[in-house]
Amino acid sequence: MRVCFIAAPLIARSGVYNSAIELVTAAREIGLPWTAALGVSSTAGGASAEVDGVTEFVAEPAGVGGIMRLRGALRATEAYADADLVVSLVPQSDMVLALERRRWIAYVRGLPWPERNEASLAKRTVWRWLERLALRRAEERWVTTEILARGLGGGVDRVVAPGIRMPQQRAAEGQQLGSDIVWAARYSSDKNPQLFIRTVHATGVPGAMYGSGPLEEELRVAASGNPRVPGWIAKDELWDNARAYVGTSTREAFGRSAVEAALHGIPLVLSDQFGCADMLFTDVGLRERHVLPLDEPAAWEAVVRRLSEDTAYAEAVGLHVQENARALSIGAAVDRVARALDAVG
């Protein structure tokens, strides 16, 4: 079955963008005829990925009014036109497919409507109504984690856990951790970057915030030099000097950066809104110390200090999450998606 994964518009070449490319690449390596059509904003950082089976086109965020333009752009994409079944990875794609007469699945990767601090009441109400209507027209509705299933409030057919491509081993087995407490996400309010800045200021540890987004200049001013706010950085350089990864998001359906860090043996501190948190911290004691409520700044500061000062402890935590992260490989994700597609028929 020819399956096309679509996501548009994307404002950054990060989470969904990388996940779609890795999924299609891994599937094609074992002979599955999967493709992807990705619509990316012209302002997105990084270069377009030239990957077999992946078509990239320009698509700008334009709210509900841009749905019809996006529909035309997708129809002009060969991979989309030739597919037997389409899998949508973002809400705008869901809304386009709700207008099309073809088989499609909504694979929800994050809460598909704005939360209270992200948009006006009117916009949140309209967006939620349109997306719920679109989801009802999908043949099935998949989510990546149980936390996301709860956030949607029902109507989920399957939990299909994602995966990421395993990174190359660090330069030397057992290489020492670096010095930076790293934050890596979009510079936006739902990623809660202010909590990271407050934690770095309170502890005095060196920090680095990697990403891009509308709050970039505001965060540079707030950081006052530590943490550093260098902007977007190549993925293969992200963890070079990492001591720990700190994820402060108010909502994170999966948490790709956390899994990537864990695969490198880097210890984590995560908000309890990360869908991957329970997958990565299977030890109850470690989970209590490292998966934290957003309203307990003292707990964040305490664990960051310990990771910065106690190398043996930091390495032990890194080994724990690394072992658990290996179950979230992209190959395993392809197998999970393929089984779900077989069940759909």
TrEMBL record:
Keywords: Transferase. Pfam families: Glyco_trans_1_4 (PF13692). GO terms for molecular function: transferase activity. It comes from the Bacteria. This is Glycosyltransferase involved in cell wall biosynthesis.
